[in-house]
Amino acid sequence: MDSESSVSNREAASGGHFRIWARIRTSTFWMVAVALFLRVGWIIVAHTYRFKTTDGNFSFGWEMGSIGASLASGRGFSNPFGPATGPTAWEPPLYPYVIAGVFQVFGIYTRASAFVLLTMNSVFSALTCVPIFLIGRRMFSEKVAIGASWAWVVLPNVMFWCTRAVWETTLSALLVAVAFWLALTMEDREGWAPWFQFGFLWGIAALNSTSLLSFLPAAGLWAWYRRAKRGKRSLAGVVLASAVFFICVTPWLVRNYRTFGQFIFVRDNFGAELRLGNGNGADGTLMLYLDATHDPYAMRQFQSMGELPYIAMRKRQAVDYIKADYARFAELSLRRFVYFWAGPPREADPWWLTPAKNSLFLAASVLAFWGLGRALRLAKPGAGLLFWLFLLYPAVYYAVYSIPRYRVPIEPEMAILCAFILTEARTMATASLPDRFSPRESA
Questions:
Q1: What is the rounded distance in angstroms from the CA atom of residue 146 to the CA atom of residue 375?
Q2: Integer angstrom CA distances of residue 267 from 48, 86, 256, 259, 365
Q3: What would the pLDDT profile of 289-343 be if each residue is shown by its tens digit?
């Protein structure tokens, strides 16, 4: 009797746990809460808020941190490398102003500021679970949505950038995911609100990271096309979204024109970045030794010439190198394509760490491409939009250089595709097993 009662109690407890998990697993609140708990917990346990100071605090936010410190100390949006170099448009304005606001409250380059900024990044990363779940459920199934979202919650590689780097990376990933969701659902929505949201979101994205804008034309045309197939008019909405977008970015464009005397769309450093990937000695990786932060001669050039002439010089050097040997540039671009999706070569101790990391990096890309291919074959809703995201967003990095951080803004969509193909593989494997208990075999 006691043993029967004990079994019944265990079954009841098991059933209760299952019901709790059934509620939690589809709850975006719990996804965000658990993700944030894990990320902030890691910041505290691993002391990732303790940035080194031997490099003049440059590793604390790099150029954005330097600009933030300049803003917080009353010197304006300037000095991206630390030493006094004057006004700058080297970086987009949004995240440096966020850094400056934190610096003003918690101190410039203090551990308190580092903890607050990394916690903010963790909030952005945790919130990304929401559009991942919504996109996965709309495009594929609730099972895929749950798998992708909880993978984003718990995987250590997802937590890395938000807990270790003061940069716009995790905010960019959130913005791209929300923009993708908005474009995906524009065909279902009515009124002016979605178009206003579309323009405002992309305006914020432009001020955060201009590289995200490569996906804007595809997202806008996709929304227009899908609405047109349903017989819905979009021209007035497109005009509204465009107006809101330019209202968002125009103040910064005016600031740049007044500061430098010429039109600069948000940031100006493309020529310098192009040179860091193209020139004598180029091998497809970032030639960091040429950067002004690592080359004293380049820093003296930057200070004596000024920002715009220095960037123009660097651009001219890169373009001359490319024109001299287009075949070599094509080879370098192919290498950068591989490095973007498979991870670049890098030194590590122990020796096996880089191959191990890059193998996992490549595995995620392979699964994502496999999932994208199957989604296209099955004509899943939004598969074409994913194709354009994967085609357009990385393109600029094939011409410049690639580092692992550059892939992060599209990793939410990669997580969805990985979850999709793994779910499909499991379903196909189950379907291929013989039914041992079928009426035909048991007869």
A1: 18
A2: 29, 15, 9, 12, 30
A3: 999 999 999 999 999 999 999 999 999 999 999 999 999 999 999 999 999 999 9
* Three-class HEC string of 162-228: HHHCCCCHHHHHHHHHHHHHHHHHHHHCCCCHHHHHHHHHHHHHHHHCHHHHHHHHHHHHHHHHHHH
Render pLDDT for 161-187 as a digit per residue (tens, 0 to 9).
999 999 999 999 999 999 999 999 999
Angle of CA points 189, 191, 192, to nearest 5°: 115
- The answer, as to whether pTM is greater than 0.90, is yes
DSSP-assigned letter for residue 315: H
Q: DSSP string spanning 102-135?
A: HHHHH-TT-HHHHHHHHHHHHHHHHHTHHHHHHH
> Structure tokens of 183?
């474009």
> The tokens of 257 are what?
């024109």
Helix (H) and strand (E) counts for the chain?
Answer: 21, 0
For 272, the enclosing helix (H) or strand (E) is: helix 270-275
